[in-house]
Amino acid sequence: VDIDWEFPDNEQGANPKLGSAQDGATYVQLMKELRAMLDQLSAETGRKYELTSAISAGKDKIDKVDYNTAQNSMDHIFLMSYDLYGAW
């Protein structure tokens, strides 16, 4: 399972009204719950399931999530680097 998490708190996303100051904490909880579900599924099927996330490269976005805690539930974290420079 890969979670694409571009704009926590969504101040600059396509729809800023959908964001929340709780997005960072929600992300950490989501990763914990998904890991638990994938581990349960793995126990049932005997298969390994990975949990990954693609995150924004912006320091302002990274600072909104406790990745030190979240990484304990994840197999990989991928940094999105396609929007580091542009007209914005």
Task: Explain the overall architecture.
This protein has 88 residues and is of the alpha/beta class. It has one domain. Helix content is 35%, strand content 16%. It has 3 helices and 3 strands, in the order βαβααβ. It has a 3-stranded parallel sheet with strand order 1-2-3. The relative contact order is 0.22. The mean pLDDT is 89.
* Count of separate structural domains: 1
Strand content: 15-25%
Count of distinct strands: 3
Ranges where pLDDT stays below 50 over 5 or more residues in a row are none
Lateral arrangement of strands in the main beta sheet = 1-2-3
Q: Biggest sheet, in brief?
A: 3 strands, parallel
Name the features:
single chain; elongated; alpha/beta; 3 helices; 3-stranded parallel β-sheet; 88 residues
